[in-house]
Write a structure and sequence with these properties.
By secondary structure, the protein is α/β, with parallel strands linked by helices. It contains eight helices and seven strands, in the order E-H-E-H-E-H-E-H-E-H-E-H-H-E-H. It has a single domain (2-246), classed as Alpha-Beta Complex (Spore Coat Polysaccharide Biosynthesis Protein SpsA, Chain A). It is 45% helix and 17% strand. Strand 1 (5-11), helix 1 (18-26) and strand 2 form a beta-alpha-beta unit. Helix 5 runs parallel beside helix 7, helix 5 (129-146) runs parallel beside helix 8 (215-246) and helix 7 runs parallel beside helix 8 (215-246).
Length: 247
């Protein structure tokens, strides 16, 4: 069943880490999709080199301008589905995820192919304080929107998507707020959600670690998203209850 799963890497200006991430994915998956979200020439050249080295296994889609992580992930999920895959395992291009945990994601998939499997990040002391407390606030909002405390971290970019289920969901976010939105909308739609504890390491700038989070702009998008979701939540809880108990 692993043949029905591909790796998915949305990338925006990660020239130092991208090749290593793709190599790590290809240890498990024959096929890897790279969505180039309007990257600079240095990253673009690396993507083209990877595609030339593995023309049948590395699938590339270039977005002409930077549209945001959410837009890149959605493009990748649709491409994966078009290519005939049943699932896509997404990882960030900055090298912060422990790809040695991939078999644990696949084990959940084999147990329940319909599940959205999310990484539950285990952070070291290198996590920036603003991200640490920002995640705590997001966790609170997710609990309010979902009506449960059982959902895992909503911001981790290490996740396994069941394509038929998630590609049917309509989302608003094009940037980093896509990660929590797709989780909530999947939960409301009755998609099972599982989690895998996984270590996350924040790389130094010299190692290629870079953040594309735009403080004011992305925080405003997050506020708008969570306001919308909280207002929708009571009705969505009822609809989810009906869907789950009809299955």
């Amino acid at each position: 069943m692993t043949d029905a799963v591909c790796g998915l890497v949305p990338v925006f200006n990660n020239p130092l880490t991208l090749a290593g991430v793709v190599a790590g994915l290809r240890k498990t998956f024959e096929h890897v999709i790279i969505i180039n979200d309007g990257s600079d020439q240095e990253t673009h050249a690396i993507i083209e080199q990877l595609a030339a080295q593995h023309p049948q296994q590395v699938h590339v889609q270039h977005l002409a301008v930077n549209r945001g992580k959410g837009a890149a992930v959605k493009a990748g999920l649709q491409l994966a589905r078009t290519l005939g895959f049943s699932h896509a395992l997404q990882v960030d291009a900055d090298g912060q995820h422990d790809l040695g945990d991939i078999p644990r994601f696949l084990a959940h998939m084999h147990h329940n192919p319909n599940a959205l499997v999310l990484g539950a990040p285990q952070f070291g002391d290198d996590i920036p304080a603003i991200r640490k407390y920002g995640r705590k606030l997001t966790t609170l909002m997710i609990a309010l929107e979902a009506g449960t405390l059982k959902l895992p971290d909503a911001m981790c970019g290490f996740r396994l998507y069941p394509l038929d289920r998630v590609c049917q969901l309509r989302t608003l976010c094009q940037r980093m707020c896509f990660d929590p939105e797709i989780l909530i909308r999947a939960w409301w739609a009755g998609v099972p959600v599982a989690s895998v504890p996984t270590r996350v390491r924040y790389l130094s700038a010299g190692e290629g670690g870079v953040s594309h989070f735009r403080g004011l702009h992305d925080n405003l998008l997050n506020v708008g998203l969570h306001t919308t979701l909280v207002l929708q939540a009571p009705l969505r809880w009822v609809l989810r209850y009906i869907k789950v108990h009809r299955q």
